[in-house]
């Protein structure tokens, strides 16, 4: 019952010693580094009662856990079910989509806790973690999941782990430059997560260009059921995106506002996606690829500005535009990128994350530059952009300029980092599949015999299975 | 590989210009109306620091966001995944079920924010929104999703958008009459959402009666996998229903109580559904249609009374009864409605929403009429029914009477509104499918080639695909 | 189109009167018992305003609802979607997996509210319930879902209800001994839920040993789609496990800490599971069975210690070990248990719950014994282990000893209880399937005709369906 395969050109995809070695060694390294560096932050430590007295808090409900834990869980679902299932649209790559996403994210969150911890939560030799660190680690891994979308089906699990190691590192550096050095606002990560993650992934897939990929073309499409599974991913990303964009905003109005703006942007995005999906197809039928992806562009594109006074109608406008841009991208740009620029982008992350991410950065810069004390209130203005300490004198328009600089830095980091990592992944030691074996679970997974053939036998008991 | 179809009677279902036009124009209208009317409420506005001082709040945790956001997200999942996947049971209408539900809900929540805003959150010329408005918009759209269940598979996406536009409008009017004029309690919407939504949808499908629907009878059933997808919808509705019924109740005990009552009612409902599903079938086997739907009737039926002192055993009794009523409805009433009254109710919303919604309204009226200061406490009694201001002197039994009046008003609005909208949808301009093309994704969606045929080829490489 | 079946040996699996009778009678009993005993606790009762004054609470946000409701909903999803879908991996038992899990859990939570209520929330003749009771009822049912995993596919729904009745009862007794008599800590239930539930289930399946089970061997595997459905269950269990282990911990730091520890343990567990899944297979391919199950062992194994100062690196170590133990168990132990000890463990709960549960109990005992006032702070130490009242003088090492005793008690209760219940279930009156009909939905469910055959007909219209 084995399927025929072109064994002549097959690469060595034997994972038995390489994958376990990488997993075990790296996990041991995590344990050692966590042992040396990671401790509970004051709100998760058993000394909390003393902390509470010191900070003059009267109730346990003031623990940051209760402000952020529900959002954390929503973000967690987006990373593991959202991305994992969204990438399940390929007909024979469901195990790889959800399983490899699981693997890289589980490793990535540990490494991100360390990398982001060193930059942001390092106090007297220890990284002190709490629920906000968990969210940030998930965010960081989100950018890896995005990049994974570009190379989906064409890489080995070891390559994915290597990419995760490097990308998380570079993410943390880029994030540090943006948030700490440029003092940029980016709560939902239009720049740090989407722009960086997407252009990083696109650069990697460009360098890993496979000229003979059409050999596995028959497996690059979806089937009816795989499209339905992918819709689970789409919907969880869409529904929980308000939590994503508000998860690490300031307590109170900022979280509240970020959720509302994202809700509005996403709603508008669905309508323009449907409109253009039908309009750009001769028969006027809707295309599941667009519905699965472009409907999410509105969430990406308010990632920077959602916590600002973008206003509900401003959010609708952003969502309106991004649904169009993203759908048009799927129809015209993805084929162009592949044929002309040799960028093979399996999931079309250029349309879902790269362009909307850039738009999100720009919208954020404009919204910041347009901020006034009138709109925000005197206190609200300072709080919204954290114009305290050495940033006391920064004006809205200067902030807008720094926001714009943040986009450029993210792009440069993505291109440089993607080129470096792409070159490393090109080394012939990682066990990637041959061109004709791409988009096929059989290479790295024990795949059960097909149900269809069973059923076929049941209904046609007199016929042999393989004549 | 195109499937043969009776082209002779085919209607014009070409969506290429009509659907984009409606989507884009309406979304532009939303942007304009939001621009004129919608602003952040005080708890989401950047002036929140000043607001906090004025209201004498000492902590950001007092922001309504932290009371309601987790419930909001649960409700959001119910609308998009719950309803979307529940309707996926048809063998070849999965894209339409989840995709059209996505489309109408995304439009509906925007229009609902406006309509409900004008009635309930209008202050000095602006609609001020916060998380409670988002929940209410989702609730309103829930009633459209219910009506969609009756006409599932028989309408074009444009018809669904037109219905959404009208139904949201009428919902808001009906809600205003009930909550503001009659001063009725209906936190979980037994009357406003379920009774109204279901009888509205049933009236619409009656008017759109298709005498030749048996032409697509082979597609009106489920297959093994589509039933499993539908169970995702069922379970998310079932699990999150306590959040639904408690989402907009008063802070504190009312939210807490509503969740407990709903939890109890739903648990009882599962057992009686299973009992009657087995009992009403000759072979004694369980029927997935009942499990997918009737198990939810308990949540519908405590929609009005969950926040009242219904008590856990009262909830069990309501759930007990509704599991039976709903299952019996599927077995005996649905076929009767179709053959005698020409009501073609694809999902059986009469059994899941209409009858349990009516029961819910009646249970609410009785529970209200039976309320005493002894049971609720002096303050609790006033708070539970908001007997303040001009309602200061209202007694429990009078409240019960008004609750009953609310049922009647909802029914009248549903019949009148459904008749009007049904008549509009009957116009031959909306691109609805011909009778033999109902319940078929192929009409409005790009459907990928079937996996089964691929696999068939793989396993039988020597055989031609279509002999 | 009926499938051929060996009717000769078929048992009487006719459920028409037996199942409805059990469901209805038991539900009536629940109503009566709830009517006599169950009332709202003070935080869900309409007298809450008075309560608030008495307890000197200034805000509704201090209601326990807001501390625990989001965690409750996550736990609820784990029980109904997590367990229900995880068990969907069998190719033809999806209805049974999710449907019977639904049935037994819906009954179990009601009975658990009563049983646990009598032991823990009984005041002046009434059981006073709130959100914490709902969580505990879900927890209790979790142990039944675990036991269900061992006998999956081999039992009738009545047997499952009977098992639920007894297991919930014994669970409550065991929990009372551990928490109240031994004063043991077990917030995430390594002992009370996992060790007890798994060894209970293994004992039951040992007693129900079926020598001819290989007759249904062809149905005991998975197919491609059923494995993807199962991954939904896996991921929801994995993602929400931090909520599970923190749901009933003390407010503040304990809940916060439990979530972080669980997050870390689960992340490490994924990497060692992947490593050993590949390493233990000749071709080095990953096995979905391991990914679906062993990745969760890390959550089980910190069930006792997650709320303690286990520290993030301690959690990583526990997860590291349990991923290995669990995967090795699937490869070597499960076949051994079946062939030598006649323990037929359908889902491999020995590897996912039994062994990791034991490890969890031991880790908890060690962590407790190693606790010092230095690590926890003076107040934190007392609060973490509730060393108040008559336990004022208990030391950490004595606590460690009692924790260890808790493991032994749970094991004894599981073996004794499992033997008793197994013997009851062996009675020939419950309608269990014959050996050749195991793992087959057709016995207890109306199963729709297969899609595959339909499609086959569509594409091959000239061929008869069953030659």
Automatic annotation (TrEMBL), chains A, B, C:
Domain Ammonium transporter AmtB-like: 63-429
One GO location term (cellular component): apical plasma membrane
InterPro entries: Ammonium/urea_transptr (IPR029020), NH4_transpt_AmtB-like_dom (IPR024041), RhesusRHD (IPR002229)
Annotated GO MF terms: ammonium channel activity
Compartment(s): Cell membrane
Superkingdom: Eukaryota
Protein's membrane topology: Multi-pass membrane protein
Transmembrane portions of the chain: 21-40, 72-90, 97-114, 134-153, 160-179, 191-209, 221-240, 260-280, 313-333, 353-371, 402-425
Alphabetic keyword roster: Ammonia transport, Cell membrane, Glycoprotein, Membrane, Transmembrane, Transmembrane helix, Transport
Protein name, entry field: RHCG protein
Organism whose genome encodes this protein: Pelecanoides urinatrix (Common diving petrel)
Upper taxonomic lineage: Eukaryota, Metazoa, Chordata, Craniata, Vertebrata
